[in-house]
């Protein structure tokens, strides 16, 4: 058969036929569509939950949101939360610097309780003072009282009240860390010395020596006092007591693997987010939100 007759019978050229064959074989052995490179993607339900927490709590950063997720049983890396917020156009909050006195405070954390004064102003400009104690090991917060005249006698009475509230837990403490404020008296120190604690005074003009207590006071300001008008002593006492309960029972802490001070372990993870409804508990009228899975 001559070439002309061949083209009439077989209009497809041999080169085209070979090209088709090469593409057929290439498609047969191409497994790229079945490959999943890298880590598995984050579930859409978790992404939605991250964005919901960010939307309902605009002051929370990616680590605070990660802690709330861990408290709910969803353990994802803080970098994943950061990326979800970044992809959604939400700027994550930068990490804060660690305190200079980290080595000592870390080594002695289980035996340290720190004290410091928190000042706040009422709606009419009246200055109030609250005495704050923080247990380093558990991060448990104690706001013992509020007054407009923090005398030495008042401060000593707050120390006695704290010792009575702690009870046998005072036995595990070894140090009281405080500054050199004149409102602390020798009688105040004697309350703790009687239980075998050693008094450590921070150096003058060195607030970072009491960094943990300074930081919790900053947390109280950022999450509470900067967003509410205090009307008087009774109102301040009620607000701080409510926040103390939230801080100790619910708020996650990085130093404790995102556990609240009064919790010993995380709840069991809930994998089916579609059937387990998430409940929001509004604290102080919705200023602070607490989340739990419905039973």
Description of the molecule:
By secondary structure, the protein is an alpha/beta fold. It folds into 2 domains: 44-95 and 265-293, no CATH class; 102-251, Ribonuclease H-like superfamily/Ribonuclease H (Nucleotidyltransferase, domain 5), CATH 3.30.420. Helix content is 39%, strand content 16%. The chain has helices at residues 3-9, 14-28, 44-56, 62-71, 78-87, 102-107, 152-166, 186-193, 211-223, 233-249, and strands at residues 112-121, 127-135, 141-147, 175-178, 198-201, 278-283, 288-293. The N and C termini lie far apart (83 Å). Mean pLDDT is 83; it is low at 95-100.
Q: What's this, in brief?
A:
By secondary structure, this protein is of the alpha/beta class. 39% of the residues lie in helices and 16% in strands.
The helix content, as a percent range, equals 25-40%
What are the segments in which pLDDT stays under 50 over at least 5 consecutive residues? Answer: 95-100
Strand content: 15-25%
Secondary structure tally: strands: 7
Radius of gyration: 30 Å
Q: Write the CATH homologous superfamily of the largest domain.
A: Ribonuclease H-like superfamily/Ribonuclease H
In sequence order, what are the helices and strands, one letter per element? HHHHHHEEEHEHEHHEE
Helix run count:
10
> So, CATH architecture of the largest domain?
2-Layer Sandwich
Strand order of the largest sheet: 3-2-1-4-5
The geometry reads as elongated
Average pLDDT: 83
Assign the CATH topology of the largest domain: Nucleotidyltransferase, domain 5
Instruction: Report how far the terminal alpha carbons are from each other.
Output: 83 Å
- What structural class do the secondary elements suggest? alpha/beta
């Amino acid at each position: 058969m001559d070439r002309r007759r061949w083209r009439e019978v077989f209009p497809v050229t041999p080169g085209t036929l070979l090209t088709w064959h090469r593409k057929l074989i290439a498609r047969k052995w191409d497994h790229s569509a079945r490959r999943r490179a890298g880590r598995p993607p984050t579930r859409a339900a978790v992404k939605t939950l991250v964005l919901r927490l960010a939307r309902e709590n605009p002051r929370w950063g990616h680590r605070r949101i990660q802690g709330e997720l861990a408290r709910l049983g969803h353990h994802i890396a803080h970098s994943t939360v950061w990326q979800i917020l970044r992809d959604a156009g939400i700027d994550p909050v930068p990490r804060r610097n660690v305190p200079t006195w980290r080595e000592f405070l870390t080594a002695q954390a289980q035996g340290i309780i720190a004290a410091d004064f928190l000042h706040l102003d009422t709606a009419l400009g009246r200055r109030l003072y609250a005495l704050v104690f923080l247990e380093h090991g558990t991060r448990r917060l104690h706001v013992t009282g509020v007054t407009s005249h923090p005398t030495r006698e008042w401060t000593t009475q707050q120390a006695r009240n704290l010792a009575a509230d702690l009870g046998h837990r005072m036995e595990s403490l070894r140090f009281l860390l405080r500054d050199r404020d004149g409102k602390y008296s020798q009688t105040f120190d004697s309350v703790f010395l009687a239980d075998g604690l050693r008094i450590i005074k921070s150096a003058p003009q060195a607030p970072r020596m009491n960094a943990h207590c300074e930081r919790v006071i900053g947390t109280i300001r950022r999450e509470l006092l900067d967003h509410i008008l205090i009307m008087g002593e009774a109102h301040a006492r009620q607000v701080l007591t409510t926040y103390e309960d939230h801080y100790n029972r619910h708020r996650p802490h990085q130093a404790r693997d995102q556990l609240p001070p009064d919790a010993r372990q995380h709840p069991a993870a809930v994998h089916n987010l579609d059937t387990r409804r998430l409940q929001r508990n509004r604290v102080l009228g919705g200023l602070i939100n607490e989340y739990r899975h419905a039973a």
